[in-house]
Amino acid sequence: MADTEQTIETDADAPKKKSKKGLLFGLLLALALGGGGFFATYSGLIGGASDHEATPEHDKSVADLPAVAFVELEPLVISLGASGRSRHLRFRGSLEVVPGYEADVTNLLPRVIDVLNSYLRAVEVAMLEDPAALIKLRAQMLRRIQLVTGEGRVRDLLILEFVLN
C-alpha cells in the first residue's frame, strides 16, 4: 500500500503535459497566411505593381530625344578679390544650342566670353563660395548669354567645371 500512495503522490506533483496541437495549428496558419500575403503582393492584388506593369514592354515605342547641339566654351580663368590676396576661378562650360544655330553662336563666342568674364569678375567671392548660389549664377549667366546671342538660339548653359583656387 505504501507503493500505491507513493505512485499517487508522484503523479500529482508532476505537471500535466499540454497538447502541442495549438502550437502546430498556429504555426501552420501563420505560414499559410504569410504565403497568401506574399502571393497577393507579388501578383499585384495588393498595393504594388504587377509583373505586367513593372517590366517595360518592348512593343512600346520610346519617344525620341529632342535634337540638340552643343557649343563648347573655352575654359576661363578669372582673377578674383583684392590685390592683396590672389584667388582664381576656373570655369568651363558648354552651351546647349538649337540645331542649325551652331555657326551663329560660334561666331558670337568672343562676345559670350566677354559677358561671362565681366559678370564673374563683378560677383562677390562670398557668393561664389556658396554652393547654393551656383543655381543663381547659372541663371544669370544664361540670361546674359541669351541677350548676346539672341532669343531662341541658346537653350541652356551646362557648367562643366567651376573651381575656386
Structure characteristics:
165 residues; alpha+beta; Tetrahydropterin Synthase, Chain A; 2 domains; 7 helices
The helical percent reads 40-55%
What is the CATH third-level topology name of the largest domain?
Answer: Tetrahydropterin Synthase, Chain A
Percent in strands: 15-25%
What's the number of domains? 2
Q: Assign the CATH architecture of the largest domain.
A: 2-Layer Sandwich
Averaged pLDDT: 85
Shape: elongated
Low-confidence stretches: none
Structural class: alpha+beta
CATH C-level category of the largest domain: Alpha Beta
Q: Rg to the nearest angstrom?
A: 37 Å
Number of strands: 4
> End-to-end span in angstroms?
105 Å
Largest sheet: 4 strands, antiparallel
